[in-house]
Amino acid sequence: MSNRSAKETAENSLKPFVKWVGGKSQLITELEKAIPAKNEKTYTKYCEPMVGGGALFFKILSEYDFKDLYISDINPELVNAYRVVQRNAGDLIQKLHELQTRFLPMDEKSRKFCYYAIRDKFNSTSLTKATATEKAAHFIFLNKTCFNGIYRVNRKGQFNVPMGAYAKPAICDEENLRNINKALQRAEIVCGDYSLSRKFIDDNTFVYLDPPYRPLSETSCFTSYNAENFDDNEQLRLSKFFKKISDSGAKVILSNSDPKNTDPEDSFFDEMYKSYKIERVSATRMINSKADKRGRITELLISN
Ligand SMILES: C[S@@+](CC[C@H](N)C(=O)[O-])C[C@H]1O[C@@H](n2cnc3c(N)ncnc32)[C@H](O)[C@@H]1O
Question: How far apart are CA 90 and CA 276, in angstroms?
Fold first, then answer.
């Protein structure tokens, strides 16, 4: 694995193609420090099994030369969008371009009508090979135009976020999508539980685990990326997975919320990961309904 030249980087700088709750753009500098240096044992494989919007993944794609890449997520619509960008970017761009040309000149009333019609269509069409590209286009459209870029579903699994208030949302970023399409050709994209990545991971693999955050308090709870909850038992199951892949020789980093922000006595993660390195890094919470809770807090960066 090696860093690419600065010139190449500037030309191929890739950005996430969706906004994602828990997106790690803010922590990139801290996360980058954990990427194995060139002179460390050769890590040739990169694995991000809970990829979300992929802030670190796109940084890695832009600036590092890992030979094999594996990404996955449990959200089928998100994974479908990654796959369509990988396999059918031309048609996707065409559909997004049409949506953008139609939507941007509309007044607010017409935009609302259009947004909710697309949301209904997205919710009533099941995901099949035949509908994959249209569903990915609608998924990206909804992500760019909905309130705060949140992906939230009701108990029936239907996307239920209202329209946001963006004057000129960038629905179709053609250049970025084309660059991502090229870079994704060497990636394996899987829909399902993070544990499926076990067979990809070996002692040449650098792994980044970024699970849904453990809520800091009842009111700050936002972990609903899909219809299931990522509760404390899930955090425990993930810590066992961390240990397993660490024991197999992989280099692993994991980020999570720091319970000590709200309760200095809460050592949930300190106990769980006591055999590993635990750093507290500074961040600003992006998703919180209460403006006064948007201050700087610490987040955990755990590594082996
Ligand atoms: C904090 S977000 C990741 C954010 C990402 N690092 C970014 O920069 O956008 C956590 C992700 O884990 C996914 N997820 C939740 N449970 C999962 C599971 N059991 N296996 C795989 N992915 C899961 C969610 O769908 C969500 O996309």
Answer: 45
pLDDT tens-digit map of 273-285 = 999 999 999 887 6
Closest residue to atom 13 of ligand 1, CA basis = 50
pLDDT in tens, 55-67: 999 999 999 989 9
Question: Tokens 């860093």 map to which residue?
Answer: 3
Ligand 1 center to 39 CA (angstroms): 30
Looking up tokens 């060139």, which residue turns up?
A: 38
pLDDT of 124-142, one tens digit each? 999 999 999 999 999 999 9
Ligand 1 centre to CA of 231 (Å) is: 13
**Given the DSSP bridges, would you call strands 296-303 and 251-257 parallel, antiparallel or unpaired?**
antiparallel
The Cα 225–Cα 256 span in angstroms is 15
- Proportion of the chain in helix, strand, coil states, percent, rounded to 5: 45, 15, 40
Q: What are phi and psi of 130, to 5 degrees?
A: -70, -30
What's residue 68's pLDDT?
96
- Using DSSP's 3-state secondary structure scheme, residue 201 falls into coil
